[in-house]
Amino acid sequence: MSRIALLGGGFSTDGRLTEVVTRSPGARLYRVRADGEAGAVEEAVPCRLLGG
């Protein structure tokens, strides 16, 4: 099971992260999960830039 630490705006559907939005160009969100060998795997999650 993945745990998510989020700074910014995230939307979920049925308990699953479905979209991430940001006002900062180049901002990134990473989903971090255990790799099963005492380490971690980071997976970048696409962020949609809000217009303004």
> Tell me, what's the shape?
flat
Which residue ranges are poorly predicted, with pLDDT under 50 across at least 5 consecutive positions?
A: 1-7
Could you estimate the helical fraction of the residues in percent? under 10%
End-to-end Cα distance, whole Å, is 35 Å
How would you characterize this protein structure?
This protein has strands at residues 9-13, 16-22, 29-34, 40-45, 48-49. It has 52 residues and is mainly beta. It has one domain. The strands form 2 sheets. It has a 3-stranded mixed β-sheet, with no helix packed on it. Strands 3-4 form a two-stranded antiparallel ribbon. It is flat.
Supply database-style keywords.
mainly beta, 52 residues, single chain, 0% helix, two-stranded antiparallel sheet
Helices and strands in order, then pairings?
Blueprint: E1 9-13, E2 16-22, E3 29-34, E4 40-45, E5 48-49
Parallel strand pairs: 2-5
Antiparallel strand pairs: 1-2, 3-4
Sum this structure up briefly.
The protein contains no helices and 5 strands. The chain has 52 residues and is mainly β.
